TrEMBL record:
This is Helix-turn-helix transcriptional regulator. Signal peptide: none annotated. Residues 16-74 form the HTH cro/C1-type domain. It comes from Actinoplanes sandaracinus. InterPro entries: Cro/C1-type_HTH, Lambda_DNA-bd_dom_sf.
Amino acid sequence: MVGGQGRLATRVGLVVQAARAQAGWSQRTLAERAETSQQWISRVERGEVDLRLSRIERLLNVLDRRLVVESAGIADVAADDSDTVDHVEAAELLTFYVSTCGILWRRLDKVPYVVSGRLAALAQGMLVRPTRVDLRIAADDVLAASRALSTLRMPRWHERLQMYVGQDPILDAPGPRRWFAADMTEMRVDIVPSIEPGVTVAVEGRSLPVVPLGELLVADADIAELRRRASS
């Protein structure tokens, strides 16, 4: 693993999150086995911790993984964009998000929603790396969605404390609409007046409704910038 601190932390977080999911462990279970806190594990998985090598090795050992370090030329690193992926990693990431977040999709089965952001772009063939689940939910369906998600462990982002705290599944309550959903990944919700028909993508036996890529390229500055970088 090479590159700047932010990129390295992000990759370590993805490795830890994937290994934990494969083991079938919650963040709490991993924290107990690694003799640390669930909050710290959550921050590691989001790439927000400047990890020492000794702590990386200890955490990966708990997950029955080992750290492999490689070197690369500066030109090679510069050309390696951590926001983009190749076709193999794209397939793995899409499977990971759809399978690992299965409980989230099941809770929302009877609530209209569409996936937006990078995950929606990835599902439609754009080679981008998602870091969370972005959802659009219509204002009229917020109560139903809140009830559907109420059984999940969903600490909400606290802007002043800069961390996830409590258990708050009420989507339209005051504050940032950011949750860490059921020990899986960050979920952000955009409440919109209505849901327009999206594109349905079949992944791992699930039909995932997503915002059409053409709309994302116009309305989402992040997706538009990634497309610009890919074509330059």
